[in-house]
Write a structure and sequence with these properties.
This protein is mostly helical. It has seven helices and two strands. A two-stranded antiparallel ribbon has the order 1-2. Strand 1 and strand 2 form a beta hairpin.
Length: about 200
Amino acid sequence: MSDKINTLIARIKSLEDELEEAFDEQRAALNMRIEHGRAVFDKEVQRRHAALRTGLLQYIVGSRPLIVLTAPVIYAVIIPFVLLDVFVTIYQAICFPVYGIEKVRRRDYLAVDRHRLQYLNALEKLNCVYCGYGNGLLAYAGEVAGRTEKFWCPIKHAQRMARTHAHYPEFADFGDAEAYRKRVADLKNHPKKAGKSD
């Protein structure tokens, strides 16, 4: 990789760290702290949150009819989500040790905690659990796929992608045969690198 690309990747990482620090500052301003891996609010904040909860019946009655009618379609996606979860987990459990790729820790990608917020009613809590699981699962599956792609085909696409995984910048450029062969040889000799960003 060129020095310019390495510098840009380092700047992106630095900006991501800076953004996370800004999120931490916002959380602190909301009187939130993390204790034993859980978000905790002061009693006064909890009281204000509970006062802002919309009742379940009011929430349902206040929803647009088409939103209510499409709910079964949204919730039906749980079936392919669970299947994806099972298959991706089995795939990496079987294949990653054979390839020598470091396994993806599922718990690092699935965060299901918003249902603990006092200002959400039961349906909003269910929605938050579902969204947290679905989006976390897709991120987890994306990381497994990214590590697989890094091991088997670390070549950038010719066309620009709307979004790529964290390993993509390390791939050989489209058409750079020497860089590809070097990258593949390096990964075959040091497969654990397929689970880490260089």
